[in-house]
Structure formats: structure tokens, C-alpha cells
């Protein structure tokens, strides 16, 4: 059966010429009304020049391009080559077979040229999370390719796509193991720090891997310090602070379930339990009414804006939150502050922090500018794949 052909309107191929992987519905000349969500399509411009292979979806972003080189056969061999490239990439930056750090991202969707596909690794278990029906249709094949590419470094594959697939598709996905259900071990290591990972019921694929290097950096500042980790989820920053000799660490989250995850990770380092306190509370209110001062505060909130329409409110929220933290830090205190909102650019985030510092009236120095790690690569043709922004500030 021939692959459906999508033809663009005249003059609407500029973004694809620049290798951007998204085709918006308004750029399409062809009738797509009979195409099913997830259908593999070939995209051509108005002059009938091939522009890329992609997956069709119903919505503003109508096609996500996964290859701009014409391929006669997008068969099993093709997908094996793409997975092999992922493995080779992570080997080159030191992750495959690394026992000290076996929590890492193997595929970062558009960042790795495979829109709609996320693969995270936890102690030899691969968690596949699809954000497009096209990639979801390939999940069994991707699992097979992972087994061949990773060999002994893979013990299980779990599909966790039910929560992330487009709701318009006429499917009923269920999460579950594609391989090695009896072998998976729900744990992992970052720089020797052990974590309990629940990919079945936890957020995202079970952990926020993108903060690994920033957790390590916080650990380097923590010896002998008192630390407040807000929006802590499973306590990643807290565990690194404790492991590196923090005097006292408080982990705060509004979710009781998150705090239960913190306690589970704390149980893996019982020698530090007496230096830790868990707090269930609203972070904004808690910081505003602090009765004690901290040497280090971590602000790692969930995305305040997922769409441009919410961006202004998000910037104001970042400003207010950081004002409270800057006010509460004593002279010489350190603030680790982050935004994972994709629509809030680095400049906008920095501007919100600047406005907060001005209003509080304290001296603030930037010690580090932080971002996502190498296993969350940024596609140079797709600036949207850069989403994590962070600053380490010293307050006087």
C-alpha cells in the first residue's frame, strides 16, 4: 500500500527547508479528512519536491517529521538503524554501561530527531512514552530494536503512553510491559546516589531525569548547610544534599504522595534520616511565612505555562515566588531557581528574576546558568526542544 502523500501550499515549505520538524495544518494543500491519526505520510512542497517522512495527527501540528532524507523502505532495518544511533549517542557521552549513573534519557523526541518518542532508562529498564499515535504504532518494533541495540544492558521495556497520547485518536491504550516484566528492578543511580523509581504510578516516566547535573551541583554547595527543597516531588535535590553532608534538609511538596516517595528514597540512606524533615504544604505560602532561615533554597516548580496564552501570568508567578525566596535567604544564601515552561524563554525567565531582585532590594549575583543535560539534547533546527532554564543565585 502506497504511503499517503501530503502536498503543501505554495510558499509554505520555508520551515521544512530549515529542517524544522513540524508541519502546521494551515500549510497543507491536500485533503487530509480521510487520514487516520498516526498514519505515516510523505510530505512534498507545491513544486513536488520531497520534504520529509512524518506521522500525521489531528490538530494544529498536523505532521511531525522524523526524517528529511528520502527512504524507499521505512522497514524494520530502518528503525533498527535509528535506535542504534540513539544508543551510539548515549555511549559517546558516557551513559551506556555506567553503574554509577544508570538513570538517563535515551531518546528526547525532537531533540533526537524522533518527534513524539521519549525513552528513559532506569537500571536497565527502558520506559517508552509516546506523545504521538504514529510512534505508538511502532512501540513493539522499537522494543525489539532496543533489545538488539542494548543487549545485556537492557533487562525490560515498559510502555507508559496511555497518559500522553492525543485524546482525539480512536484507541484505548493501556500501559504495560513489552519485554522482561519479571526482570525489572524499580530503582536507579545518579552519581552513586540510589533512588527508588515507580514508573507505573509516578509522574512523567517515574523521575525528573533532566535535573541530574543540577542535583549534583547542589550537592557540591550543601556541606554543612541547611537546605529547603520546595516542589520536591521524590526528593532528588534533597538526597544529593544529604549525601554531600548537609546539616539539615527540609523537603516540601503539596502532594502527600510525593512526600511518600521522598520517604521511600530517604529509607535508602538511613544514616542521614535524622537530618531530614518532610513537609506537606503549599510552597508559595510556606516561603512567605518562613519562621527560620536557610542557607540554600531550591525552587523547581511544575510548568506555570504550557501555552502562550498563559505566559504573562506565568512570568508574574515566577517573579512572586522568587521574591519570597530572595527575601527569606540570609546574607550569602544560595537560591537554585528553575523554569521548565517551554513557552517561557530564557530571557523572559531571567527578566522575571531580575524584576524580583529589584523589588526586594537585595544584591543578587548569578553564579551559574543552568539548563537541560546532554542526554536531553536540543535540536538545532527545533529551538522548542530547549525548555529547562535555571539560575544559581547568591543573595546579599
Give a nutshell description of this structure.
The protein is α/β, with parallel strands linked by helices. The protein has 10 helices and 19 strands.
Commentary on this structure:
The protein has 396 residues and is α/β, with parallel strands linked by helices. It folds into three domains: 5-67, Roll (Archaeosine Trna-guanine Transglycosylase, Chain: A, domain 4); 76-189, Transcription Regulator spoIIAA, CATH 3.30.750.80; 208-395, Vaccinia Virus protein VP39 (Rossmann fold, 3-Layer(aba) Sandwich), CATH 3.40.50.150. Helix content is 27%, strand content 26%. It has helices at 14-17, 76-92, 133-137, 139-150, 212-221, 236-243, 256-266, 283-288, 311-328, 346-360; strands at residues 5-7, 22-24, 40-44, 50-56, 61-67, 103-108, 117-122, 125-130, 156-159, 176-179, 187-190, 193-196, 226-230, 248-253, 276-280, 296-299, 333-339, 364-371, 389-395. It is globular. The relative contact order is 0.09.
List keywords for this structure.
alpha/beta; Archaeosine Trna-guanine Transglycosylase, Chain: A, domain 4; Rossmann fold; 3 domains; globular
